[in-house]
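Section 3.1: Structural characterization of target chains.
Under the original work plan, the team committed to producing a structural model for every single-chain target entering the pipeline before any wet-lab resources were allocated. The record below documents one such target. The sequence was received from the expression subgroup and is listed exactly as submitted; it comprises 252 residues.
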Amino acid sequence: MSEIMPVLKEPAKKRKGSRKLLVVLFLLFLVLLAVLFFNSSISKIAEVQIVGMKLATKAEVAQAAAIAAGDAFFGTTSSTIEKRVEKLPQIESAAVSKVFPGVVQITVQEYPIVAFELSPKGELTALLSNGTSIAAQTEAMLVADKPVLTGWTAKDPLKVSLTKQLGKIPVKQLSDLSEIIPVPSKAYPDRIKIYTRTKFEVITSVSVLPEKIEALNAVIETQEPGRITMLLADTYVPFNVEEQEDKDAESE
């Protein structure tokens, strides 16, 4: 007798329709959550914290940042805000961090004050290391121990170069410089005269000032007040020697 083969049942087909429905429902759920989140107060900026400035005001930084409480927390990237703030002339750099939920922190680094200038109207102007001029209105500016620029024209390009060079000088040495006057010559168009608070008179040039400052400091610390020339060659003559030479010349 021939054996009867059992009838094989076909495997049940998977219900693809139900799986697709679950995926669609899950995506709809995510969309719903996103809509609820971005319309809730937790997705908004609750506070903008601004720190680090002495020259700029909080209002100026906030306006440059172009964000405020109530704006979307994720609506603007940190790098975009930083670039906006750094467009302010007195801001050297800005760092933005976001602390969820709702807090945006902006920390600024300003260009330092390197000198002051008295306008024809008698108003004191602060000069920053990038050449920017701002009104010296705050107490922090007025107590700064920095040199005063006199005899410079408003649009003199050498004045901008000078402020950049002064920014390279250590604060301690910069504080000894009292007054800086332009005294250009054919050989040295950028020649300047510096009076120090330690009673020295220095002739040098804008272009070589940072590299000469260490030598100048060495003379000031070890010698009596006198006249110093620091150009191609460096010379030093004490004032008492000059006075004696002048007396000798008059007596002859």
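The radius of gyration is 35 Å.
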